[in-house]
Specification:
- Helix content of chain A is 35%, strand content 22%.
- Chain A has a domain of 65 residues.
- A six-stranded mixed beta sheet of chain A has the order 5-6-7-3-8-9, with helices on both faces. Chain A has a three-stranded antiparallel beta sheet with strand order 2-1-4, with helices on one face.
- Chain B has 13 helices and no strands.
- Chain B starts with a helix and ends in a 5-residue tail after the last helix.
- By secondary structure, chain C is mainly alpha-helical.
- Chain C folds into two domains: 138 residues; 200 residues, MetI-like (MetI-like fold, Orthogonal Bundle), CATH 1.10.3720.
- In chain C, 78% of the residues lie in helices and 0% in strands.
- Chain C contains 14 helices and no strands.
- In chain C, α3 runs antiparallel to α4.
- The chains are: A alpha/beta, B mainly alpha, C mainly alpha.
- Chains B and C meet through α1, α2, α6, α7 and α8 of B and α4, α5, α8, α9 and α10 of C.
């Protein structure tokens, strides 16, 4: 029955923008992987609305379905039941209209293309003219602080720089929605802090919607406007925590009581999810 | 240069994930190939058959044409069932001691293949152990072994047979030497690669135990090399078979599958050639399968997954 | 340096013994002089601790002079062979000394010079030993000609062998190679598009690796005649399977994340093929191209054993073997070897250019 529900568009706050649909609306979403012994419930009864311009983090222990949920949004996985829309249409249609850029756990750069041509890859596939490809690659490489590295090959860059290239590649075709799946998980903490700060500035400047998967509490709190706490077996949403922190966040905001308060709430929620599993 | 060519293919062994899952597609492909073979037989043999009909002034239907192309005495391409029939007759209905028995010829080739393979394996492994432990051999000999992979060594076969014949060696040994000669190269290179496969951390661990080179060899290098060894043994045994068959060509040998191919081509006995080919293929597949079975046994003994 | 001394000392002793033992050194002044120079150089290197340069200089002098002396001696009347033990003891000493120098070379820090010099010296030493042994023991040419005899045969019959080479390489090998590899690649791309076909073809074609395909040569000769077309046909069949199997594996080697990336761009099958799967498959394709370069040469030559016009390296080998002109046979083999190595080398160079990004080439 949920599948035929009209799509609710709360679109509170922003006046006049209510024509634009929400970035992601999921209702009663479930995904069950069939397995020989016992089917795995990767997602169970997910209800979630992500408005435009939000920065939403999915956090939870491994196996809680945070990546799966993101893959459903990206049309890389298909839900077994329930409904989901991305920008008001099905994930499939959204993918075909190139609605989102996906940043993976690893940079997933093509070793045979230099930095510039890696960023231009989606633009080639989408058939943009050459001049436009070049100027966009230059613009977004500048934005992630990699101007001047166009001719380098991925393997000549550090891990952090490679991940920045992959962010530039996701931004290059100017999608409204940025899906980031533990993009900084493999990096050392110093690089990670630096990239978190840059990402936040980028989000402030461009006003894109960002969905961010992480298992770091401080990363989630530092970056997000809302934090979705998830729990495994079955993968479900435990709690959605709104962050009272201001949009402009210097790195040392992480030592303020307000920050620690939110982090504490996230930790308590995560612990609640764990208590009856292990 | 050295390391570059040592980036050998880890041989592509078919998908081991689901033999049953692939049964249907494989079956379809095999059936399609057989159908194609029958079709080709009609197409290639038709001209001769039509000539014969024309000479006899007989009218013919398509049905008769097809039947005739599939049952010729010396067809350009024999139909699969003709080959199967000849194969069956020469394998099961002929005394094994007879020169017309395919089992006899297969046995001759098989013994040369196995002897050559054995010698090649011993030589190849010994060389590899030497190369890994002696810097001189590594620097001076290995480049030549690698380079010799790029030259058509099989060209030497006729000469080996003739020269050894002049020295009084005939029959089995010259062929086995050609096989050995062909198959020690892949084994040496595979085993060198395998003996060097342990990662630096594992070697460092042995160093922290103050292990001797011999201990490191038996406890670390050899177990790591086993998959590489078997991969190259599979290549080598197939190569060894080719060597044995080619070794039978130049002297006009009377026995062996190569001799069967040669006499078949002299007398236009295409069916005989094809059934010799089928036998050679069966032996090749069987030998590789046997090496694979030993590999799985060893793997199980060493606690490998699956 | 000190670790070389035992070997070099034994080498010096052997050289000295060889000079004293009967070999007829003193009938040939030049040979004796060079042998003495070599011995002197080895001993000086042992006793006198000069700089590295003088050390290398003395070693080079010892190796060179030591190599030439037996050659000069062997120009004489003899008797040699077992009746000249001094000669062989001397050669053994020379070999041992060379070994000690090669060992020193192998323990030098890795450099291009060391990497090239060691195998070159080793190869030359083998050739040299071959020459000295065949001449010294008077091995009949029918059994094993000396390298010098092979060289003479090669120059004398070069025009014929050159025509043979053109027939075998340019006509049979190249045409068959291009068609076979091309067909293998095309079928791999098609099979990759239809998973069912790939799953059916892969096991069958992998099996073909265990089959002595060269055996189809007599059939191809019947179908396509004695000229190069039948050899090219054999080459086509032989090169087809490795290419198909490798290319198919290569097309499937792109990792899941990179395929997801293309999926997220809503890229079509052919776009993914062109931009992702073919580049990832390139190292595999080159692997097949390299395997096939050798296979093609071998198959063409073996196919010529089954009958050919009066041209071709394989024909030359089998014909001259029958006439016991073993020196010409070795000449043909030398040409085939050089051609095979060059063929391989060219492909490896192109590979290096096109797959510079692959982990095995990165700098």
């Amino acid at each position: 029955m949920s599948a035929i529900d009209p799509i609710p568009t709360p679109a509170s706050g922003s006046a006049g923008a209510d024509i634009a649909p929400d970035a992601v609306v999921a209702r009663n979403l479930s995904l069950i992987y069939p397995a020989a012994d016992k089917p795995v419930v990767a997602l169970s009864d997910i209800d979630l609305t992500i408005r435009r311009g939000e920065f939403v983090s999915f956090i939870g222990p491994s196996g809680c379905g945070k990546t799966t949920l993101m893959r459903v949004v990206a049309d890389l996985a298909t839900p077994t039941s329930g409904s989901i829309t991305v920008n008001g249409v099905s994930p499939h249609a959204a993918r075909l209209s190139r609605a989102y850029g996906y940043v993976f756990q690893a940079p997933a750069l093509y070793a045979w293309r230099n930095v510039q041509r890696n960023v231009m890859l989606p633009l080639e596939i989408m058939g943009l003219p050459v001049a436009e490809r070049r100027s966009r690659a230059a613009r977004y490489l500048d934005m992630v602080g990699l101007g001047g590295f166009e001719r380098k090959f991925p393997w000549q860059l550090s891990g952090g720089m490679q991940q920045r290239v992959s962010i530039a590649r996701a931004l290059a075709f100017e999608p409204d929605l940025l899906l980031m799946d533990e993009p900084f998980g493999a990096l050392d903490e110093i690089t990670r802090d630096h990239l978190n700060e840059q990402l936040l500035q980028l989000w402030n400047r461009t006003g894109k919607t960002v969905i961010f998967v992480t298992h770091s509490i401080s990363e989630a709190v530092y970056l997000s406007t809302r934090i979705v706490v998830m729990s495994p077996r079955p993968g479900r949403i435990l709690e959605i925590i709104d962050s009272p922190l201001p949009p402009q966040r210097p790195l040392d905001i992480r030592e303020t009581p307000a920050f620690l308060e939110v982090a504490h709430r996230v930790r308590v929620a995560l612990r609640a999810g764990h208590s009856y599993d292990d | 240069m050295t390391t570059e060519i040592l980036r050998l293919p880890r041989p592509v062994t078919g998908s081991r994930s689901g033999p049953l899952r692939d049964a249907l597609p494989v079956g379809v492909v095999v059936l399609a190939l057989i159908a194609l073979w029958y079709g080709l037989a009609v197409w290639l043999n038709a001209a001769q058959v039509i000539d014969r009909f024309a000479n006899n002034d007989t009218a013919w239907t398509v049905r008769e044409l097809v039947d005739a192309t599939w049952s010729m005495e010396r067809p350009v391409l024999p139909a699969p069932h003709q080959v199967a029939q000849n194969f069956y007759e020469t394998v099961f209905d002929t005394a094994v001691s007879s020169k017309r028995s395919l089992v006899f010829h297969a046995g001759v080739t098989l013994s040369a293949t196995l002897l050559g393979f054995l010698m090649g394996a011993v030589l190849g492994i010994a060389l590899a152990v030497g190369i890994v432990h002696l810097a001189v051999l590594d620097r001076s000999l290995l480049p030549w072994i690698i380079a010799s992979q790029t030259i058509p060594i099989l060209a030497i076969a006729p000469m080996v047979v003739v020269v050894l014949g002049n020295l009084g060696f005939e029959g089995l040994l010259p062929k086995a030497i050609i096989s050995m000669y062909l198959c020690f190269f892949p084994i040496t290179i595979g085993v060198v690669k395998g003996l060097r496969a342990p990662d630096p951390l594992q070697l460092d661990l042995m160093r922290t135990y103050n292990a001797t080179p011999t201990q490191t060899f038996w406890k670390l290098r050899l177990p790591t090399a086993t998959p590489f060894l078997f991969a190259s043994l599979k290549v080598a045994i197939a190569t060894s078979l080719v060597g044995a068959i080619v070794g039978e060509l130049p002297t006009g040998a009377q026995a062996g599958l190569g001799a069967r191919l040669l006499s078949g081509s002299y007398y236009g006995q295409t069916v005989q050639i094809w059934s010799a080919l089928v036998m050679a293929s069966l032996i090749g597949v069987l030998l590789v399968f046997l090496v694979g079975a030993v590999e799985r046994g060893v793997g199980r003994a060493m606690g490998a997954a699956r | 340096m000190s670790r070389l001394r035992p070997t070099a000392t034994v080498a010096a002793l052997l050289l000295a013994t060889g000079l004293v033992a009967p070999a007829g050194w003193w009938t040939d002044g030049a040979a004796a002089a060079l042998a003495l120079i070599a011995l002197a150089a080895v001993v000086t290197g042992l006793v006198w601790r000069g700089s590295t340069v003088t050390d290398h200089g003395l070693a080079a002098l010892a190796v060179l002079a030591g190599a030439v002396a037996p050659l000069l001696l062997l120009r004489g009347e003899g008797p040699f062979g077992a009746e000249a033990p001094g000669l062989w003891i001397y050669v053994a000493g020379w070999l041992l000394f060379l070994w000690s120098r090669l060992d020193a070379l192998a323990h030098l820090p890795d450099s291009t010079t060391a990497r090239v010099l060691a195998p070159v010296l080793f190869g030359l030493a083998l050739l040299y030993l071959w020459q000295v042994l065949t001449i010294g023991f008077g091995v009949p040419q029918v059994l094993l000609p000396s390298p010098a005899q092979v060289g003479t045969a090669l120059t004398k019959r070069f025009d014929v062998l050159w025509l043979d080479f053109q027939q075998t390489f340019f006509k049979s090998v190249l045409s068959g190679y291009v068609i076979g590899c091309g067909a293998g690649l095309v079928v791999a791309v098609i099979a990759d598009r239809f998973g069912f076909l790939a799953r059916g073809l892969l096991p069958v074609c992998t099996l073909a690796g265990a089959v002595p395909i060269v055996g189809i040569a007599p059939i191809m000769v019947m179908w396509f005649g004695f000229d190069w077309q039948s050899k090219a046909a054999v080459v086509v069949v032989v090169t087809f399977f490795p290419m198909l199997v490798n290319a198919l594996a290569g097309l499937r080697s792109a990792d899941a994340m990179q395929r997801d990336l293309m999926h997220s761009y809503a890229a079509g099958h052919w776009q993914t093929l062109l931009k992702l799967r073919l580049p990832t498959a390139l190292p595999f394709i080159f692997n097949a191209l390299k395997i096939n370069s050798t296979l093609a040469m071998i198959s063409a030559i073996v196919a010529e054993f089954f009958g050919s016009p009066i041209l071709g390296l394989g024909f030359r080998i089998s014909a001259e073997v029958a006439r016991l002109n073993v020196d010409v046979v070795w000449g043909a083999i030398a040409i085939a070897a050089v051609a095979g190595s060059l063929f391989y080398g060219v492909i490896a160079a192109v590979e290096r250019m096109l797959t510079f990004w692959h982990p095995s080439y990165r700098t």
